[in-house]
Amino acid sequence: MYLLATLVLIASILLYFRIADRYNIIDKPNERSSHTRITIRGGGVVFAVAVLLAYFLGMASWELALAVLMVASVSFVDDMRPLSQLPRFSVHLLASLLVLYEAGVMELALWWIPLALFVFLGWVNIFNFMDGINGITALYALAVLGGFYFHPELSDFRGLIELVALSVLVFGFFNIRPKAKTFAGDVGSISMAVVLGYLMVHLLVATGEVFYLLLFALYGLDGALTILHRLIKRENIFQPHRSHLYQYLANEMGWGHLPVALGYFAAQALINLIVIQVATNREITLLFPFFIIIITLIVGYILAKYLILKRLKPV
């Protein structure tokens, strides 16, 4: 079955390359880009194909399949011709509600629904913003999927996780390289964000422990602290920028894309191992290690960014 799924995924991305060539779906470098050559955009469509495969194989619910199909469709159109905020936000909102409904959030206290919706939509946008250098989306997705895979509360979703991870490996073959053949595009990054958010919601509902949000720690902190930093600088947070830590490392510091992407992967994988170990052998409340790890990461992030900005500041 997995051999057949692999062949389908490979055929899907190769077919997409022909479509992208035909309709000129490419990413041209600009002043805010972290790349320097024209590259096919939207190769991450293979992530959505994996979810649809999982649905037809009985490994994913119709709610998740429909949610991913919705965001992938509007993102594909947006990759070809930029859309206004309203249609994109409306589709993201409906898809998020589908995921929350399927995960049982609607059965919790009423005040949980707007909070969960706000956090879910925030996660989708943060994940999309972090898709900026070769390899980072694929490698980070693998780190998070690996973290989910070993939690017994998500044992029913292991088939889905395996198929999505397989699609990441297929995409990664064309993306995790110094000169990428394709980028995930909105169709890929947003589809993946919905899948990862879906698994996180299920884990949180099953355990009731915010501790497991650490599986999103690096992207979550980089996204949230970057927004905070831009607000302090009175910048428009809805405009494109190059203010994330990974962007400073890859652009201003001149680090290679793959070393930066591998660094994010390794750091999140290490955090995931700690999460699994603590959750397996816990003898204290999970809130204590949660805050210890979060504070450590925040201090490390702020220090790293301070040192970079200090080095870049003109004498």
List the helices and strands and how they pair.
Blueprint: H1 2-23, E1 26-27, E2 39-41, H2 45-56, H3 62-80, H4 85-103, H5 112-129, H6 136-149, H7 158-175, E3 182-183, H8 185-207, H9 217-232, H10 245-252, H11 257-280, H12 287-312
Parallel strand pairs: 2-3
Antiparallel strand pairs: 1-2
Helix pairs in contact: 1-2, 1-7, 2-3, 2-7, 2-8, 3-4, 3-8, 4-5, 4-8, 5-8, 5-9, 6-7, 6-8, 6-11, 9-12, 10-12
Instruction: Choose one word for the global shape.
Output: globular
The percentage helix is: 55-70%
Average pLDDT figure: 90
Physical arrangement of strands within the biggest beta sheet? 1-2-3
Distance between the termini: 61 Å
Hey, roughly how much beta strand do the residues contain?
under 5%
Describe the structure.
- Helix 10 packs parallel to helix 12 (287-312).
- This protein has twelve helices and three strands.
- By secondary structure, it is mostly helical.
- It has one domain.
Main features:
315 residues; mainly alpha; 3-stranded mixed beta sheet; 12 helices; 3 strands; 70% helix
What would you say about this model in short?
By secondary structure, this protein is mainly α. 70% of the residues lie in helices and 2% in strands. α4 packs parallel to α8, α9 (217-232) packs across α12 (287-312) and α10 runs parallel beside α12.
